[in-house]
Amino acid sequence: MLTNFIVALVERILNTSLKLDSTLIDKLEPVSHKRLLIDIRDWQQQFLLVFTEQHLHLYSTNEKQFDCMISGDIDTLIALKNPAMLTQLIRQDKLDLQGDLNIAQGFSNAFSAMDIDWPEHFSRYLGDAPAQQLWQIMQNAKRQGLVTDKKVAATLTQLCQDELKVTIHPLELDQFKQQTRQLKGQVAQLEQRINQLLQLH
Amino acid sequence: MNENQEKTTHFGYKTVAETEKASMVADVFHSVAAKYDVMNDLMSFGIHRLWKRQTIASSGVRKGHHVLDLAGGTGDLTAKFSQLVGDTGQVVLGDINSSMLKVGREKLHNLGLVSNIDYVQMNAEALPFPDNSFDLITIAFGLRNVTDKDKALRSMYRILKPGGRLLVLEFSKPEHEVLSKAYDFYSFNLLPKMGELVANDSESYKYLAESIRMHPDQDTLKSMMEDAGFEQTTYQNLTGGIVALHRGFKY
Ligand SMILES: C[S@@+](CC[C@H](N)C(=O)[O-])C[C@H]1O[C@@H](n2cnc3c(N)ncnc32)[C@H](O)[C@@H]1O
Q1: pLDDT at residue B28 above 80?
Q2: Could you tell me the residue ranges of all domains in chain B?
């Protein structure tokens, strides 16, 4: 579920960037409705990326259906920023590509044109300190390999205790607390009434 | 058993005549329709969005598909499906309740989603479509409200295309005792109270809490799906089993 949460956040940030730069939509048009499956081997995670008319959809999934699949360790996938590496990586068995390669190419073209300040975005949704922390962890994870759900879970729990703002707005929490207090008061009253009744009998 | 005795079913914890349940369920959703989305976010702390994302991630949906979002209510899943199936696909938002459909239609309209969505009032037990019509059927937080669940599952099986799949997202049985207790307290004490304060309707939310408890657990639902004809039936627990996502195929 926590992977899901982060994926949802990343999807939202991608779509925000999409809205800011309309040329991106034209760039993505050729891969519209094509399913790109990204298999990050050392994370043991698969992500499905689809662009539809105005939106990018990103899901963590176990589905095996795709129009193009790209599979490799995270470092390898990042190395793809330099397209000249492609054949070499495939020959070294570090990278596996299946299906219509134009799709991977299309996404890659659009994304290289995107200039996203990830830490900035994360801090908008999460608050500054947790965002920094999360970013740090993702950087470390990239170095150490394997991002387990557990590790992410532990960190996020910690973050939640600090100042995570996404799950529930402070105002809502206040309201909720107030309501619980009211409820407690009512239960106490009820208890008193019951006690009175018991005494009468 | 007395042959003449009226057939009964559960309405939350109350036992009511089977013929009455549908209209009582309808009352519940008529009364919550307007505040449904707000309450959903508040009651689940927004987690229902992640549960729904998981449903879409497991759907295999793609351009050109025909999708039925059954008991679709205010159309959260329909909104995503509409984008993913594109102009060559079709999504039907089906619900028994006209108020929920109305709120759903307005919401999706405001999101600019119009071209490929149909809104159809229907009962899950007798789906008004020919055999082999859909690539995907989802029913999210809807099955527990249906009176004859077996009949509904058979009906869904009938209208799925061969190769199509059914996804059932529904409250289920938490895996751990502690979670189960905490959750009980939350849903029986706090949830109706929140319902009263926000939607001014504690009875409806009491019904929701009770109906969740009466719903079959993971393995029972899995075998019900198998009895209806589904194959390769599996389930995935979400948030410790508070919710489960069941999946089955028709071949
Ligand atoms: C809790 S809502 C879920 C709405 C939506 N799927 C979601 O997840 O937000 C349950 C919906 O099931 C509908 N419903 C109840 N019984 C039904 C039946 N027999 N056939 C079709 N829909 C039904 C209700 O009207 C209501 O809109």
Answers
A1: no
A2: 23-175+206-249
**Is there a contact between A80 and A86 (Cβ–Cβ < 8 Å)?**
yes
Q: Report whether A36 contacts A66 (CB < 8 A).
A: yes
CA angle B9, B11, B17 (to 5 degrees): 40
Return the number of other C-beta atoms located less than 10 Å from residue B4's C-beta: 5
The answer to whether B74 touches B65, Cβ cutoff 8 Å, is no
Is the predicted ipTM greater than 0.85, yes or no?
no
Binary contact (B84, A57; C-beta < 8 A): yes
Smallest Cα–Cα separation from B53: which of A107, A167, A2? A2
Pocket test for ligand 1, best of B96, B169, B211 (most atoms within 8 A of CB): B96
A87 interfacial to chain B (CB closer than 8 Å): no
Structural class in CATH, domain B23-175+206-249: alpha beta
> For A98-107, A145-154, B109-118, which range has the lowest pLDDT when averaged over its residues?
A145-154
* B197: contact with A, CB 8 A cutoff: yes
The per-residue pLDDT for range B166-189, each reduced to its tens digit, is 999 998 888 887 777 777 777 777
Q: DSSP characters for B103-153?
A: HHHHHHHHTT--TTEEEEE--TTS--S-SS-EEEEEEES-GGG-S-HHHHH
Q: Give the contacts of A25 (CB within 8 A, at least 6 positions apart).
A: A18, A54
Q: How many CB atoms lie within 10 A of CB A71?
A: 17
Is residue A160 very low, low, confident or very high in pLDDT (cuts 50, 70, 90)? very low
H or E stretch at A59:
strand A55-60
For A2-112, CATH gives 3.30.1050.10
Radius of gyration of chain A (CA): 24
Under 8 Å between Cβ of B64 and B85: yes
Give A76's contacts (C-beta < 8 A, 6+ positions apart): A89, A94, A95
**CA geometry: angle B203, B94, B117, nearest 5 deg:** 130
B191-199 and B202-214 helices cross at what angle (nearest 10)? 150
pTM of the full structure: 0.77
Would you kindly state where each structural domain of chain A is located, as residue ranges?
Answer: 2-112, 118-200
Going by C-beta distance under 8 Å and a sequence separation of 6 or more, which residues neighbour residue A165?
A125, A126, A127
Ramachandran region, residue B222 (left: φ > 0; alpha: ψ -120 to 50; beta: rest):
alpha
CA distance A12 to A166: 13
How far apart, in whole angstroms, are the C-alpha atoms of residue B123 and residue B71? Answer: 8
In this complex, is the C-beta atom of B120 within 8 Å of any C-beta atom belonging to chain A? no
